[in-house]
User: Which sequence fits this backbone?
């Protein structure tokens, strides 16, 4: 009897939501794991290995090559923000859990040299930003209950969350929706982030990591980075040695919609390298399917061996009751040409839908 009860408990917590010949979804109280014939990925519900949003750190596996993501996760979501400084009021904003917001632009008044230096390396010294609503979802979001959606040729995971507190003069409650679609036969997933806002703003944007950060020691995990939107129509390939020393996001490899022409493509990718042998692997790329939705993006080396690939989307006037979204393709590619071919097939979209009848870009 004891053996039967133990078997039943194990089955209840490890059995897939569904399974067929090419994919299965395994759900327990902590996370949802997607296992297809080509990929593996984990979407956390609580107690994440690193961040709560997007694809969990180290879980995104390319079964074709055996390589994994080498940062802190993919498509991680942050604050709901706008241009400006919160230095005058950030200490007044207290989250429901008792944590202070913390000054996002705290280095403006910082006197400690080491802390000020780190802040300048991490955030730069120009184009100030401030919170509209919090918390910072990546590490302050409470447990969620994502919905698994299955179709004949895909599986999708949909997560929603309402921001809990707001800056002075603003209301909390804007809704973030992240929909991740894993299509059959692909080494990538399609993702949408959407905001339904309860506030007005002249320049509201959502911050994410596209595709994600890179952890490395003198380029031991990657050999180069590709940015399609800089240095002309073919983009720029940046060797790993450019990231051996820290530099701020506003020094080089940055993009701003108000200072750059809108590019034809917005692709950000890094070329994986085996940490032990040095063998070259695939590219891990993030494709933002409508370049005009990108407000600002940077690719900079922070102190501590991490390259941040932050992207801010929308950054336009919006009124309460309205919404905005961005659509991305994130995954493994053998060549830059393959990335561009996939981009051409799917470009121009900002939204994704999925139900039992199928999934579609909008």
Assistant:
């Amino acid at each position: 009897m004891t053996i039967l009860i133990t078997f039943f408990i194990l089955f209840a917590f490890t059995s897939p939501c569904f399974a067929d010949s090419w994919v299965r979804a395994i759900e327990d109280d902590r996370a949802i794991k997607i296992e297809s014939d080509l990929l593996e990925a984990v979407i956390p519900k609580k107690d994440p290995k690193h961040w709560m949003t997007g694809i969990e750190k180290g879980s995104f596996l390319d079964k074709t090559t055996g390589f994994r993501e080498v940062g802190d996760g993919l498509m991680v979501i942050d604050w709901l923000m706008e241009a400006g400084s919160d230095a005058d009021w950030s200490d007044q904003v207290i989250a429901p859990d008792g944590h202070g917001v913390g000054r996002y632009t705290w280095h403006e008044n910082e006197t400690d040299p080491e802390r000020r230096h780190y802040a300048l390396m991490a955030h730069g010294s120009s184009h100030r930003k401030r919170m509209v609503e919090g918390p910072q979802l990546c590490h302050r979001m409470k447990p969620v209950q994502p919905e698994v959606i299955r179709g004949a040729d895909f599986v999708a995971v949909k997560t929603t969350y309402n921001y809990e507190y707001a800056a002075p003069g603003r209301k909390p409650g804007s809704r973030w929706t992240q929909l991740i679609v894993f299509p059959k036969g692909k080494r990538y997933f399609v993702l949408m982030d959407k905001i339904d806002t309860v506030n007005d703003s002249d320049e509201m944007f959502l911050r994410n990591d596209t595709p994600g950060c890179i952890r490395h020691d003198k380029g031991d995990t990657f050999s180069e980075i590709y940015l399609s939107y800089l240095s002309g129509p073919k983009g720029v390939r940046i060797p790993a040695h450019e990231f051996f020393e820290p530099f701020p996001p506003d020094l080089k490899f940055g993009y701003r919609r108000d200072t750059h022409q809108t590019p034809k493509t917005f692709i950000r990718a890094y070329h994986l390298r085996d940490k032990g042998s040095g063998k070259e692997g695939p590219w891990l790329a993030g494709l933002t399917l409508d370049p005009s939705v990108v407000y600002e993006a940077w690719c900079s080396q922070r102190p501590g061996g991490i390259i941040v690939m932050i992207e801010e989307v929308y950054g336009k006037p919006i009124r309460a009751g309205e919404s905005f979204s961005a659509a991305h393709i994130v995954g493994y590619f053998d060549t830059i040409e393959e990335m561009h071919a996939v981009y051409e097939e799917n470009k121009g979209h900002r939204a994704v839908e999925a139900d039992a009848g199928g999934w579609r870009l909008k």
